[in-house]
């Protein structure tokens, strides 16, 4: 028979796993289902490509802004997504070209990839900052502070976070280049689907590597 302490630990672990699942589910809805599903639904209703891209983007921006206000905190991923929406919308308003909006993610992902690589020379490489939301969801703010404190006294921890940062930055930059090229070759209505599928394949591959790497080198919270 399990002791009360064991039962409490099991419930705590389950709550942490549930929190991570909820976080990932929200990310999938906001960053995948709404923009892709919204675009094709509006196109099927006869809406022009420009408006079909703008409308879901504005809806997503509203959701992210509401979440930031409600939680009184804007995490790195939400800020990045909002940046994509704002930059892409402004670029499209200036050029009037729907393809410009379709490649907004690619251009910004490319710049992000270069920026991620640039953070390697700092005390806060991208992976150290980006891990906060997931680590906090798993073990809370206090647990995150303990995890992050390893940076100051563990040279291997610093090395491994920089390796992961280099991998993510390189993947973002190269994937963005390929998607931009495809966006100006493919038929306009094929771009969102092909671009999304490509990104999901690349993302799945890098996440498998990421999970293997953090498990092998003891980086998990």
Automatic annotation (TrEMBL):
UniProt keyword Transmembrane helix present: yes
Domain of life: Bacteria
Keyword Isomerase found: no
Keywords: Membrane, Transmembrane, Transmembrane helix
Residue ranges crossing the lipid bilayer per the database entry: 48-69, 76-94, 106-122, 163-185, 197-214
Xref: NCBIfam families: VC0807_fam
Name of this chain's protein: VC0807 family protein
Origin organism lineage: Bacteria, Bacillati, Actinomycetota, Actinomycetes, Mycobacteriales
């Amino acid at each position: 028979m399990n002791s009360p302490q064991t039962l409490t630990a099991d419930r705590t672990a389950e709550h942490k796993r549930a929190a991570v699942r909820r976080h990932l589910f929200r990310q999938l809805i906001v960053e995948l289902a709404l923009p892709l599903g919204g675009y094709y639904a509006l196109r099927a209703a006869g809406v022009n490509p420009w408006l079909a891209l703008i409308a879901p983007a504005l809806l997503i921006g509203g959701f992210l802004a509401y979440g930031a206000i409600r939680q009184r905190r804007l995490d790195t991923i939400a800020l990045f997504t909002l940046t994509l929406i704002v930059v892409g919308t402004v670029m499209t308003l200036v050029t009037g070209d729907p393809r410009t909006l379709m490649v907004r993610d690619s251009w910004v992902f490319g710049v992000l990839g270069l920026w991620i690589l640039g953070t390697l020379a700092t005390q806060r490489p991208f992976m150290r900052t980006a891990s906060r939301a997931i680590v906090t969801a798993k073990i809370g703010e206090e647990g995150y502070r303990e995890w992050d404190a390893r940076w100051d006294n563990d040279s291997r921890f610093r090395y491994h976070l920089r390796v992961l940062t280099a991998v993510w930055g390189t993947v973002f930059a190269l994937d963005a280049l390929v998607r931009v090229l495809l966006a100006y070759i493919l038929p306009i209505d094929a771009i969102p689907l092909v671009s999304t599928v490509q990104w999901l394949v690349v993302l799945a591959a890098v996440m498998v590597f990421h999970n293997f790497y953090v498990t092998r080198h003891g980086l998990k919270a």
